[in-house]
Amino acid sequence: MPRKNCPSLYQAAASAAALAVGGALQLLGMPHAAAWCWIAGAGLVLAAVVLDTAAALWRRQFGLDLIALVSIVGALVLGEHLTAAVIALMFASGRALEAYAEQRAEQDMSALLGKAPRSANRYEKGAIVQVALDAVRPGDRLAVRPGETVPVDGTLVCAAMVDESSLTGESVPVACGAGAPVRSGTVNAGNAFDMLATSSASDSTFSGIVRLVREARASKAPAARLADRYALLFVPLALGMAGLAWLLSGDPHRALAVVVAATPCPLILAVPVAIVSAMSRCARRGVLVKHGGALEKMAQVQTLFFDKTGTLTSGQARLTAIATAPSIQPAEALRLAASLEQLSTHAIAQAVVAAALERGLALSLPQQVEEQPGAGLSGKVDGKAVRVGSYEAIAGRAPPPAWAADIVARVGDEGAAGVYTAADRSFYAALHMADEIRKDTPRALRLLRTLGVERIVMLTGDRRDVASAIAGSLGIDTVLPEQTPAAKLAAIAAARTDGVTMMVGDGINDAPALATADVGVAMGARGAAAAAESAQVVLLVDRLDHLAFAVRIARRTRAIALQSVIGGMALSILAMSVAACGYLPPVAGAVLQELIDVAVILNALRVLRLERARAGSTIRADEVAKLKGEHAHLLPVIEQLASLADRAETLPAAAIQAELASLNAALRSRLLPHEAHDDAVLYPQLAQLIGGEDPMASMSSTHREIYRLSRSVDRLAATISKGGATGASVRELRRTLYALDAILRLHFAQEEEIYHGLSF
């Protein structure tokens, strides 16, 4: 049944006017004029029903409008003009109410289209000129005034405050520094700023999202398939009961009353309203569901396929370990490497720079920089001749020194990236760069299992050992490594015979698999456009746990739709039975059926209130960023722990004493105050959000262990200062430092995961 807001509203208004005028004429003693008014009102709606029914039959669809057609025609033939007018009003008002409900539910998806920028402010010959959006090219310098929408993707020339709510749903503006990326569709929430465009308008993030939203709105959603299955039973039942009542009583008015009591059936209203409401709820959380059929399938997913890189993992290299020669500190080694890497556009080089900036290191401007493809960079940093590149480029064929052997082996075994650095012809540092598991991945997989997903499979082109290590840590059921796109298709096709499948991916090579699965989900925030185009669901925010939210909404929506359908059908059948026995006249039946329709629509609209976050039940994005910033500020202290433990046996006693004194001072002045503040201020706040009597008990126990190990470091520092670095004291020191390093890294990861989950 087509649902158009204005025609439905106009039909309802005209029917109401005809019914009212006819009623007034009847009271004035003009029954013939009243009858013609009622006929006119009913005829207007009847014409629309005839057109809709004919269109449905032309498409070979068995529509529920057929009952409305029979009831209005039957009332007019039997001379029940008032009944025909009442039925027409009820049917038209039901359509109008349904159209309003769908419009209300669709507002969240439509809001994006209204924010699409149409022009940009570009610098031309020293002046700012407003140009069409299509005229913007990568490299253009643009000005964004307060309140304006960022027109294309780019990088900031200066610091800015931006509102990313249209893309992420986060209502709090985010502060971004110079050089930070900024996505189109975000809004300037502070002072005017300049940016350098990195994409054209057609390739920008927001343009891609807008295209997807338009596609979702324009597509013919098979939202009523659930209703159609019940309609095949209900329509013959209604017409059969009407025919039987007429046959047994010999009164055609009873047949009319039965048909009226079934018009319009809740099936025609409840399912579309519930489905569109669910699509709206998902859109508010950054999950774009392109059509209702995908939402219905999501509620029945049994097997879930995941790509690895960029889906289960971040898809971006991060610094995970540093090994240095005894003569240099890890922070200084990283600073020198990052200073040189500033002039490289390679993704690994940018990850090294990001790691240094994250730790608050002051980078120097390199001189005489040369880049050798496949080997790395060379140049001068603070007067030192620094080289950064592969192991072969830095150390040649020589075996790695003892301090670097572990990282070199790990890089080879894990399929990670290694960045090796030399200064003044001396190899002095090895950086381990790895693609880490997303913070939200474990939570997302746990939630999906609780929602009924029976089997989780990793499909990846990576080596078996690398894929198995990640799958084992996440508890994934099956690992299919070294997969070609064709092999992925075959695996998904085989699983479809056992139930509904879902595939989640982000790359161009995932596009065929996304299209093959019953439900394809693309990581649209940073993924390839081909993946987003071929998928039925697109995650507009870079968070995998939002998929679990969408699946939960889909399952609860299906339950609510079934409640509405079954409840409405039961009430309608009861009313039809009463009408068949002669106790419910046609006019009263029409009014009663309208009340049933209103009830099922209101029940379907409950979907709009599903999973709404209560005030104060989540953490703002800026608070999450603050915690991560504090942890990043403490990373040099943690790295100092492992570095000293690695070198303790080779360092002279005086060097151990000096480094231990520095480390001990950092623990007392920086680390322990941070942990004390968390225990006294942060954890009580988190406990209120999580609920329960003492949800942070295990985290507080970790704090106590951190304090104990820190006291041990303090004691060992005093012992070594007095009695020297004996073999026993050095061994105990190494054990203590390694233990403190491990527990701090685990503790920080746990805190960030808790924060990440509560910022959902």
Structure commentary:
It is a single chain. The chain is of the alpha+beta class and 760 residues long. Among the domains are: 89 residues, Calcium-transporting ATPase, cytoplasmic transduction domain A, CATH 2.70.150; 198 residues, 3-Layer(aba) Sandwich (Calcium-transporting ATPase, cytoplasmic domain N), CATH 3.40.1110.10; 138 residues. The chain is 59% helix and 15% strand. It has 26 helices and 22 strands. It has a 7-stranded mixed β-sheet, sandwiched between helices. A 6-stranded antiparallel β-sheet has the order 2-1-3-9-4-7, with no helix packed on it. It has a 6-stranded antiparallel β-sheet with strand order 12-17-16-15-14-13, with helices on both faces. Helix 9 packs parallel to helix 22, helix 23 packs antiparallel against helix 26 and helix 25 runs antiparallel to helix 26. The protein starts with a helix and ends with a helix. Belongs to the cation transport ATPase (P-type) (TC 3.A.3) family. Type IB subfamily. Keywords: ATP-binding, Cell membrane, Membrane, Metal-binding, Nucleotide-binding, Translocase, Transmembrane, Transmembrane helix. Its EC number is 7.2.2.12.
